[in-house]
Amino acid sequence: MKVGIDPDLTKSGVAVVVNGKIIFIKSLGFSELIAYVVGLTHEHGVVTVLLEDVDNKKPVFPKRLKQTNKGQNPLLQYVGHAPSQSGSAMKVNLSIAEDLGKVKATARLIKEVLEDNGIRVQLVKPLRGPIKAAKKNSSYFNKITGWTGRSNEDSRDAALIALFG
User: Fold this and answer.
1) Alpha helices, DSSP H only, in the chain?
2) The pLDDT value given to residue 120
3) Which end of the chain is less enclosed by CB atoms within 10 A, N or C?
4) DSSP-derived secondary structure letter, 83
5) 61 to 29, 57, 103, 127: CA distances (angstroms)
């Protein structure tokens, strides 16, 4: 039995896979997630928990930022090598960085609390390539996994982590 977790601040995606087949997929709040996974281990014994390693994700996305008039990336202002930019692209990226920081903290807490309960957690790199496309596209996800129930992006990502992580 594998449990895939896509961490998020409010509700994390959780999926359970047995013998390559998804048997559970849902988004759960922090305390629900912990109780669910702990309950699975008490009921079924050893469970493999795969948690997306969000520390691999970069906090800002420099390619999306507009270049300054000198052709320099505005991210360099943080290290003192480029003029400052007060445009909306910078604000958006800072907001993304803040949200990602919250997700990273949640992932660390999930790992710590599960390990405190005697559950081994394996960090897996975020998925890439054609498999990752199934996160956004529910029909493609259903086609490659055989799942027919409801799902959202976070729960699909969790299932993909459990299946391919």
Assistant:
1) 30-44, 88-116, 130-136, 138-145, 153-164
2) 95
3) N
4) -
5) 27, 10, 16, 18
Angle at the Cα of 33 from the Cα atoms of 21 and 18, rounded to 5 degrees: 15
Strand partners, 50: 4, 122
pTM over 0.90: no
The amino acid present at 162, given as its one-letter code, is A
CB count within 10 Å of CB 124 equals 16
With 0-12 CB in 10 A as exposed, 13-18 as middle and 19+ as buried, what is 77?
middle
DSSP 109-129: HHHHHHHHTT--EEEEPPP-T
Span of 112-116, 125-129, 139-143 with lowest mean pLDDT: 125-129
- How far is it, in rounded angstroms, from Cα 100 to Cα 128? 18
